[in-house]
Design brief:
- By secondary structure, the chain is mostly helical.
- Helices cover 46% and strands 9% of the residues.
- The strands form 2 sheets. The chain has a two-stranded antiparallel ribbon. Strands 2-3 form a two-stranded antiparallel sheet.
- 8% of the residues are buried.
- The structure holds 2-acetamido-2-deoxy-beta-D-glucopyranose.
- 2-acetamido-2-deoxy-beta-D-glucopyranose binds next to helix 4.
Length: 214
């Protein structure tokens, strides 16, 4: 207590000009610290040429919203076969089939989520039509395996698959379990907006799905 009192007394005895200098320096240091903090928090956007490998890892649309998604089998949509099945599976992609042209040179890219959907659709077509023997099939299994692990969905389902509860014959299917998901519809809308700017030439460069075989 005694020491503190003497410190204040000594401060009080300092010339006013010194105190003003100390005050101004302190304000200056704080402003610099705030600016540094701002820079760390909001780094300036990096400029990409979008040529070959010079692109960001994700599509440049910022963080996606999170939404709740109730997982359940859709008995009215996405049948494995038949006219409706073909139409719905082939129309799952956004306009432009999940492809994008980015940068001043309009370099073509595809987005992984739609590549994954495409692979699932390919596997579905095999079930409906029979194996086409393409290497594409094996690629799709590898690709989807990685995609599922990459998603790392740790949502708890009440009974682990393959676990049979005593006295019950059915195992849990994960039906009506709510998952926290990225809002894929934002990506869909972004593609749709981008696609409106496409030229007929850009349209032609994108792969079109094969028509149903029947
Ligand atoms: C799917 O539909 C086609 C055409 O109707 C048929 O030939 C084929 O056998 C069906 N596939 C399966 C797995 O039922």
């Amino acid at each position: 207590m005694k020491q503190e009192a003497s410190l204040f007394t000594r401060l009080a005895r300092l010339p006013a000009r010194t105190l003003v200098v100390v005050f101004v320096l302190s304000v200056g240091v704080n402003i610099v610290a705030l600016l540094v903090q701002y820079r760390v928090k909001f780094p300036p956007a990096k400029h990409y040429t979008y040529l070959h490998h010079d692109h960001p890892r994700h599509i440049p649309m910022g963080e996606l919203r999170t939404v709740n998604m109730d997982f359940h089998d859709d008995i009215e949509h996405y049948p494995l076969n038949g006219t409706q099945g073909w139409a719905e599976w082939n129309n799952m992609h956004p306009p432009g089939r999940g492809a994008l042209y980015l940068g001043e040179s309009y370099w073509p890219y595809q987005v992984s989520m739609w590549h994954q959907i495409h692979c699932l659709g390919h596997l579905r077509a095999l079930i409906a039509n029979g194996d086409d023997g393409s290497e594409h099939t094996e690629h799709c299994f590898h690709y989807l395996r990685k995609a599922l692990l990459c998603g790392g969905d740790t949502t708890l389902e009440e009974v682990g698959q393959g676990t049979v509860l005593e006295g019950q014959r059915q195992t849990a299917t994960g039906e009506h379990i709510v998952h926290t998901c990225k809002d894929w519809s934002q990506v869909y809308e972004w593609h749709a907006e981008e696609h409106e700017k496409w030229t007929p030439e850009m349209e032609q460069r994108i792969y079109k799905p094969a028509p149903p075989v029947d």
